[in-house]
Amino acid sequence: MGVPLTVGVIGVGKISEQYFESLPKLPGLKLVAVADINEERAHSVAAEQGVEALSVEELLADDRIDSIINLTIPAAHVEVGTRALRAGKHVFAEKPLALSPEDALPMLELADSLGLRVGSAPDTVLGTGVQTALQLLNEGAIGTPVAAQVHWSAPGHERWHPSPLFYYEPGGGPLFDMGPYYLTSLVMFFGPVVRVSGVATRSNRARTVETGPLAGTPIPVEIDTHVSAILEHANGVITTITVSFEVWATRTPLFEIYGTDGTIAVPDPNRFSDPVELMTREEPERREAPTSAGYEDAGEVMVSQTWPGRSRQTAHIAPPGG
Asked: pTM for this structure?
């Protein structure tokens, strides 16, 4: 693979555990240093990973580092990403890239002007489950796609997360937390969204941390915790999506695609490699579809795409009749 892309991680909270588990398996990436506003936590993680703990300023100024993995809270993604670009680093950010398109655009324009790359989670569209569903669509396994339905719900992350307050601040909530896994898959399947209608609500203005060192801490709820939307895609497919932190018991997640000749049951994209089920006019009983191309270590692809010279790939299906 040649010289690996050197990486610095900013933000070593809960989500960073998944990155640190994967990075040693990826020969194209080399972790150099970590930084966090909690210096004690940064030093602890650095010791575990065998790398340096630096301040954010030191990490951004470090010439050894080619690319930043930005794992800060959502509200800080644009600020940290912009600072990294100005320091000459490529950026890969956890979702969401920004709190709004208007916030993201200047950062992307800055990257273009500097000849740098910006990437963002989720990478779950590269997983075997979603890729298998895409191949079935492209092969016409269910005829012409007409509609899709998504439902994901849970009671909220304060029950298990050691520091869940940011989930209830701007940039949090079920739409920004779990919605991207499904929305990115829908856009890959059916193309851009051209029209949307939605409603949202919240049942409480405050919640309480239930576990860990912050147990008993009140959480102001600043965002909506139950969101439903109807989306019209560029190819005419209509999709509905509901994501919620308000549901205590459910049989979901549900992710189904309906076509003129059958149905594809897509697994939770966040699980990467769960099986896809297929039901057709000729064979209406649910059956597991043969797996197709997918990449369980998809994070390597997403991070390495920030490296100049790497190709960028997109996937889509043609609109009906096209």
From this structure: 0.80
